[in-house]
Amino acid sequence: MAVEILMPELGESVHEGTVSRWLKKVGDFVKEDEPVVEIMTDKVNTELPSPATGYLTQILIQEGDPVEVFKAMGIIEAEAGATAPKAESTAPAPDAAAPVSSAPDSTTSELIVTADGERKFFTPVVRSIAKENGVSDQDLARIVGSGEGGRVTKKDVEAFIASGSNLIAAAPTATPVAKPAPAKIAPLTDGQTLVPLTGLRKMIADAMIRSSQVPVVTTITDADVSHMVKFRDINKDDFLATHGVKLTYTPFFIKALAESLMEFPLVNASLRDDHQIVMNHGVHIGVAVALGKTGEDGLIVPVIRDCHSKSLVEIAKSLDEIAKKARANKLGLADVQGGTFTLTNPGTYGALFGTPMINAPQAGILGAYAIKKTPVVVDDGIAIRSIMHLVLTYDHRIIDGMVAGKFLAAVRDKLQNFDFFK
Fold first, then answer.
1. Is residue 168 part of a domain?
2. What number of helices (H) and strands (E) belong to the chain?
């Protein structure tokens, strides 16, 4: 019996992932729950287990290619005799001298016969990208593939288009209505290098496009966190010695957020496509974590669950654990699913102000910015205080400005109240 390896739903609003690596090859025996393929999205890079014990007989989605949620990526069959893809026995064999761009499986590949009689196979994704950008079959056939066996990948055709090697022209139409021709992509000049937008960076870009479709408003306040800063300075060494984790400012922000979200549950909600509001009874806060030494490897948002019922110490321990897993690329599905609100903390690298973008379909995100010693007026006199900006971006379809303002004020007041953290 054949069992499909399906692309799972790896989080809210995630509709697509990328097959980053197959851990088994066609013909390999695999046990149920044994890792078989590695999937990457903007939220997580994870290994997926085999749904059954048997032999991997077909790979339907090649490495580097996208796959939609709930689509089949491969086939597991129980019998040892079914170790080769079915179409290999019926498809004509390609010329041995010609590189094959994809396995000749009629369900996953499309054949192109070049002008000199070469037979090459391409995935539907590659053919679709080529067609959308005016790349002819003959031009597609002359691309040198970087995939296994010379296979042309999505990355290869995108690089070909971006390089300017292909002069994109609008297809002629039978109607007199003129259509604007796609703009020609400028070729590279000296001192320029082409870097395709792929992998996690591509997933993040897609997620940002989805979030940009939501009508949002941003509200800002500043907070005098002098008491919080003093409390942390006094207690950070004892905290590390007692609890085994560093006391950063982020647990304070999460604690204040969790308390405030319980007071304003609409900010902790989300709006579905069918215009139904999902009210969340628990507070599960996603915390943006930069990957790599400079952050250029992208951003991932693991979730700290049940923040509404955790103490400051418990939040600090959960934050330390989840951040280590994220940077070690060891996050599982449960670590990135179910977030109800997001915190981003650009203040850790000195940013003074910004307008964060929500993580759709969540209704809000809070940006916590750098704490700076600032002269302010206190009781008609000038005093030096620790001041920071708190920036709330929210979905204006379900949250009005008054609710957002009161919520932000609640977060601010909790951060300014030293007794809140005892």
1. no
2. 8, 21
Q: How far apart are CA 375 and CA 229, in angstroms?
A: 16
Side-chain-side CA neighbours of 54 within 13 Å: the count stands at 21
| Residues annotated catalytic, as ranges | 396, 400
- The CATH number given to whatever domain includes residue 335 is 3.30.559.10
Residue 299: strand pairing partners: 290
Q: Is residue 187 pLDDT above 70, yes or no? A: yes
Pairing status of strand 54-59 against strand 35-40:
unpaired
* Sign of the torsion formed by the C-alpha atoms of 195, 199, 201 and 203: positive
What domain count does the chain have? 2
CA atoms within 13 A on the CB side of 211: 21
Give the residue from 84, 105, 134 where a domain finishes: 84
Omega prior to 49 cis, within 30 of 0: no
> Can you read off the two tokens belonging to residue 322?
């989840």
What is the reported pTM? 0.60
Give the three-class secondary structure for 422.
Answer: coil
Structure tokens at 169: 């022209």
Residue 157 has pLDDT above 70, yes or no: yes
**Higher pLDDT residue, 77 or 129?**
77
Domain limits for position 276? 214-421
Q: Which of 84, 104, 128 is the last residue of a domain?
A: 84
Closest to 206 (Cα-Cα) out of 66, 383, 308, 64: 66
